[in-house]
Amino acid sequence: MIDSVEIRSRVKGVAKLIHEDYEGKRPILLCTLKGASPFYTHLCDALQDHRQGYDMDFVRASSYEGTESSGKVALSGLNFESLKGRHVILIEDILDTGTTLAHLVPELEEKSRPASVAVCTLLDKRLDEGKIKKYTAKYVGFSIPNHFIIGYGLDYNELYRDLKDIFVISRDGINFDASTLRA
Ligand code: IMP
Ligand code: MG
User: Fold this and answer.
1) Is 74 buried (19+), middle (13-18) or exposed (0-12) by CB count in 10 A?
2) Is residue 45 flagged as an active site residue?
3) Which is the most buried residue in 58, 66, 75, 120, by most CB within 10 A?
4) What is the pLDDT along the chain (183 residues), one digit of tens a residue?
5) Which atom of ligand 1 lies nearest, measured to the CA of 98?
6) In the chain, how many H helices and how many E strands?
7) Taking the model in full, what pTM does it have?
8) 70 CA → ligand 2 middle, Å
9) Domain residue spans in the chain?
10) 4-147: CATH number
């Protein structure tokens, strides 16, 4: 769907937008693990080219089993107190229904009392007609059609995160028996 060259070029564009908004400030870039980690790395790299200062932090947010959103979101590994009074930019891999962020952002605001929270997502999935997103991100890398996507950090049951480009998962990809790889 999107190759690595196109991804890297768009990540630079997003970094420029963030720099324009945060010049003179030192935001905390909060990476949602595991999916956003390649995007996070390349975004940090692009922000360095602008001499944009930032602090780094990581949170584990899991809401998915298989290819359907479960609606359940669990947050772990974050010291909420450390975000108090800070400008936080939450770095996400993909925004689908918005369920994850509709839980995560208010929880952050309530527990951390940050100066501001903005969300930056690499991918924003267009929903089927009539469905309304529960959360809208401030920075979006790519708006994509509603397919299940893998690669560049995105997984299907923990598989395919290591692909360099972004793909729509195939039937074979869904049926693949990963135990042969992990022996
Ligand atoms: P939402 O809560 O429905 O917005 O889903 C967001 C989370 O679900 C993302 O952070 C991903 O972890 C996961 N997710 C949603 N769509 C996909 C996809 O197409 N491929 C892989 N993970 C996905
Ligand atoms: Mg995620």
Assistant:
1) exposed
2) no
3) 120
4) 999 999 999 999 999 999 999 999 999 999 999 999 999 999 999 999 999 999 999 999 866 555 555 556 777 899 999 999 999 999 999 999 998 899 889 999 999 999 999 999 999 999 999 999 999 999 999 999 999 999 999 999 999 999 999 999 999 999 999 888 877
5) 4
6) 4, 8
7) 0.94
8) 13
9) 4-147
10) 3.40.50.2020
